[in-house]
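FORM 7B: Structural annotation worksheet

SECTION A. Query
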Amino acid sequence: MLVPGAIAATCAARVMNTPALPACAPPGPTQASTGTRERKKAATTIRVESNEPPGVSISTSSASCPDCWARSTQSTRYAAEPASTVPLSSQRPTTSPDASTPQTWPAGGSNPVHLGLHFASAAGAPYTAWLSDQRVSLPADLQPGQSATLSAVLTGPWTANTVTLEAQMVKEQQFWFVERGPAASADVAPAWRAGYDLAQAPRTWTPGQTQTFTVTLLNSGNLAWPAASSNPVRLGVHFAGSAGQPYTVWLTDQRFTLSSDLAAGQTLPLTVTVTAPAGDTGGVLEVEAVKEQQFWFPQRAPTSFLAS
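SECTION B. Predicted structure
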C-alpha cells in the first residue's frame, strides 16, 4: 500500500478483517460475600480475571470493602456494676460484689471499708472538686444491719468561702458508696477569735500594786491555740488611760502562758498575777490574746477600776 508523500514501506502491510471476539466469562461459580457479627481487619475482595481472546489483552481488577460497612451488632459484653457503688477512680474494679446480697464491711485487709469525710464547695461535687479528704477506720468488721459510732478530728480547708461537709463510705482501691451524708454548710475560713470573762478582776488598784486573779479564756474561733510553739498564743494584760488605745500608749504590758493548748470552742481558766504601774494607773485594765510574733487578736475586754 502506497500513501502519497509518505515514506515507502519496507514490507507489506498486514490487514486483519476478523473482528475481535467478546471476552470469555470468568471460570467457576459466583461467590457471595456478606458482613459478619465479628469485626475483622481483612477486606472483602472481588477478583475478576479474563482469558485472552483474539484481539483482547488480559485485564485484572479488584475492589475492597471495609469491614465497617458490614451490618453487625455489638458483641462485647460488660460486667454490670452494683447500683450502690461508684468507681473509686477512673480505673474500674475488676470485680464487684452483688448489690442484692448483704456484705460484711471489713475493717482491715487489703481493701477495708473506711468512712470518708471531705469538704466541698457544694453537696454532691465530684472527687476532683473536693477541698479535703480524710479517712476514718472502722473499729471492727461491721455485719449487715449493724451500726458503729466513729469519732474524727477534722481539719478545715483554707478558704474564705462557705463550704459543705460530707460523709461517704469507701471500699479502698475498689469503689465509693453512692450514698452521701451532707452536713449543713459552715464558714470554715480560718478565724482567730477570743472571749474573756473578767468577773474576778479587782475593781480597785493602787500604783505599783500586785494582785492575783483568774481570767477565763474562750476560743471562739475555729483554730486551736498552741500553748507552746515558735508562735504560741498568750494572754496579754495591760493598763491604759482609756479603752482601745494602741500599743504605743499602754502603761504596762504583761504576757501569760496558757497551761495547755486550747481547742476551738473550749474555755480555759488562767490565773494571772498583775502589777499596776508605779505612777498613773490609768483607770482601765484590758486583756487581749496575742499570737506571739504574728498578731494581736481583734477582741479586747476592758474593765474600769477605781484608783486608790
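SECTION C. Observations
Confidence is low (pLDDT under 50) at residues 36-96. The chain has no helices and 19 strands.

SECTION D. Sign-off
Analyst initials: ____
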